[in-house]
Amino acid sequence: MTDAPAAAADPAASLTVRDNRTGSEYEVPIVDGTIRAADLGKIRTSDEEPGLAVYDPGFVNTASCRSAVTFIDGDKGILEYRGYPIEQLAEKSNFLEVAYLLIHGELPTKEQYDAWVHEITYHTFVHENVKSFMHGFRYDAHPMGMLMASVGALSTFYPDARNIDDPANRHMQIVRMIAKMPTLGAWSFRHAQGKPFVYPDNELSYTENFLSMLFKMSEQKFDADPRLAKALDVLLILHADHEQNCSTNAVRSVGSSQVDPYSAVAAGVAALYGPLHGGANEAVLRMLRRIGSKENIPAFIEGVKAGNEKLMGFGHRVYKNFDPRATIIKKACDDVFEVTGVNPLLEIAQELEKIALEDEYFIKRKLYPNVDFYSGLIYEALQFPPEMFTVLFAIGRTPGWLAQWNELIQDKEQKIARPKQIYTGDRQLTFVPAEERWA
Ligand SMILES: CC(C)(COP(=O)(O)OP(=O)(O)OC[C@H]1O[C@@H](n2cnc3c(N)ncnc32)[C@H](O)[C@@H]1OP(=O)(O)O)[C@@H](O)C(=O)NCCC(=O)NCCS
Q: Measured from the CB, is residue 316 less than 6 Å from ligand 1?
């Protein structure tokens, strides 16, 4: 992990701050386009008063770490993992190679790749007790809730995982988690369907094995259509990391207490469970169903423009020209529908996209389809119920969470996450005991 430069090399790269309360001036170095919040803390009216702090709910303009994992340029629609463009990885790589890249920082040699795939494949099984407690969930338990609980529970099966300062130990837990997430995700799905759990098949690829654990019934061997396995693999790649989003921030924040990685990743799954993070593609499907037919699109668009509702799957906090993942997903749609037959909602989605992209309202606000606009359609075509969409996202995001966690653990600058607050409550009240207050 790179240490931050002690001060800006270029003396002109600084900010002169004049505190009008005191008339004092301060030089604050600018490094990598940021100033240090601690430097602002030196700005104070007296020794007794706390220094100046920044107020940033949702961390919209605060860098919490230095990271070499993922680069995003939202204006230009660029997403790179360890410097490699997402388009190239989606087209020419596979999920396990991308996972290796994210975790290790560089592409594997043939030997490293084979060893990595072997390790991941042979850690797909979970302890039988995991199976027992997963059976204990209510019949209609949400699979994401089950995934969150079961990945957290793995910390009790691997108590040595708390030795986070040992690189070999960290590697072991990283392998285990990438290997076991599909098992836990598939079993959460099977539980909701009242079907028996399917054990991993280590002769299959990562994605084929996942499909087998999800859909295998009485056949000897589950034979996934390679085009569907490939489409799912691409979807996992597209979701593998997205720098400091809500769930990654949760993993880092919880991980900063130096807890084991299973607990930190469970926090990431919890964050992803929320509708503002992982649930938009489900909302897209609901919206498309409600629109019902192409004829109803103009009226729907008018409603959006009047502010009655949002066009789900459009717009992004970071991407303001296009979401590179959406372009790749659109191509994957074609491949999947070639096998499964076209989802009737696709026609509505395509027409909706066409109309919106030509409409002044969306052009002016730089609203383009995001990753969720088409992913729900693919998941549905692959026979996933909407509750499973976020589980798939979580399985894809696991290498990213772990790469970020691994980076955090080795970053000498990191401290336990502990934001400041602006206190707005009462002070110095006198406590009156209950018997007097209620008398
Ligand atoms: C993703 C999202 C939360 C980003 O929000 P944001 O960066 O905070 O953008 P803002 O809310 O500031 O939106 C800017 C303007 O575009 C409008 N807008 C943003 N997304 C819109 C959408 N999907 N449909 C219609 N209008 C939208 C806002 O109403 C606002 O208009 P105004 O300037 O007239 O008030 C937002 O675009 C959204 O809710 N999209 C739909 C949900 C979705 O697809 N989420 C998945 C993200 S991967």
A: yes
Query: What is the spatial distance between Cα 85 and Cα 78, in angstroms, rounded to a whole number?
Result: 7
Residue in this structure with the two tokens 């399985």, named with its chain if needed: 395
SS3 13: coil
Task: Provide the β-strand partners of residue 78.
Answer: 73
**How is residue 181 written in tokens?**
């997430």
Q: What is the pLDDT of residues 21-77, one digit of tens each?
A: 999 999 999 999 999 999 999 999 999 999 999 999 999 999 999 999 999 999 999
Yes or no: say if 124 and 200 are a contact pair by the CB < 8 Å rule.
yes
Q: Check pocket membership of 317 for ligand 1, CB cut-off 6 A.
A: yes
Q: Which of 127, 277, 359, 411 is catalytic?
A: 277
φ and ψ at residue 259, rounded to 5 degrees: -70, 170
pLDDT of residue 100: 98
What count of Cα atoms within 13 Å lies in the side-chain half-sphere of residue 66?
15
Q: How many CA atoms lie within 13 A of 164 on its CB side?
A: 20
pLDDT tens per residue, range 210-259: 999 999 999 999 999 999 999 999 999 999 999 999 999 999 999 999 99
Q: For residue range 269-320, what is the model confidence (pLDDT) as tens digits?
A: 999 998 888 888 888 999 999 999 999 999 999 999 999 999 999 998 888 8
Pair of tokens at residue 227:
């085009």
Task: Enumerate helices (H) and strands (E) in the chain, giving the number of each.
Answer: 19, 5
What's at 254, amino acid-wise?
V
Q: Is 371 in the pocket of ligand 1 (CB under 6 A)?
A: yes
DSSP designation for 71: E
Q: Which atom of ligand 1 is nearest to the CA of 316?
A: 1
Closest CA to 401 of 277, 232, 312: 277
